[in-house]
Write a structure and sequence with these properties.
By secondary structure, the chain is mainly α. It contains three helices and two strands, in the order ααββα. It has a two-stranded antiparallel sheet. Strand 1 and strand 2 form a beta hairpin. The N and C termini lie far apart (78 Å).
């Protein structure tokens, strides 16, 4: 097989880079660990949001409605007549808004608890690691002291 000249090798190299271009960069981007972690986080976040939404809609808001005198918050709304004389009314469904605010607050609270727990575990792991390192360092010092004492005692005997 014929060897390529330096000039042709450079051209081939540039073509390979250009051919890789957008799709090559995209493949490289996707294969990074942080992108995959983000994708997993988004998927889990979506599932978690569905669970919290169900908790709010099916458990918490009916209980709040009972305490508030049997009010169903999803049906709370204000109807405003059209000023131009047509029969349509504007409906401001503030009950749904209240429900979504409660959803948001619960999701934010749960995320706060998870982050707080993760931070606490990380701090605990760091303390344990530091404690282990200090213990190992002290053991090294103790071993060195024992060795130095043995050397001293050996020298005293001579």
């Amino acid at each position: 097989m014929k060897k390529l000249s330096e000039k042709n090798q450079e051209k081939l190299s540039k073509l390979n880079k250009k051919g890789r271009g957008f799709f090559g960069e995209f493949k490289e981007f996707i294969n990074r660990g942080s992108v995959m972690d983000l994708a997993v986080g988004v998927i889990i976040g979506g599932a978690f949001t569905a669970i919290v939404t169900s908790l709010v809609n099916d458990i918490i808001m009916p209980l709040v409605g009972l305490v508030a005198g049997g009010v169903d918050f999803t049906t709370l709304s204000i109807k405003i007549d059209n000023f131009f004389g047509t029969g349509d009314q504007a409906v401001i469904a503030y009950g749904n808004f209240l429900q979504n605010v409660v959803n948001f607050l619960l999701v934010a609270f749960c995320v706060f608890l998870v982050v707080k727990g993760m931070n606490k575990m990380r701090e605990r792991a760091e303390r344990l690691k530091k404690k282990k390192e200090e213990k190992e360092e002290q053991e090294e010092i103790d071993e060195t002291l024992v060795l130095l004492r043995e050397i001293r005692d050996s020298l005293k005997k001579k």
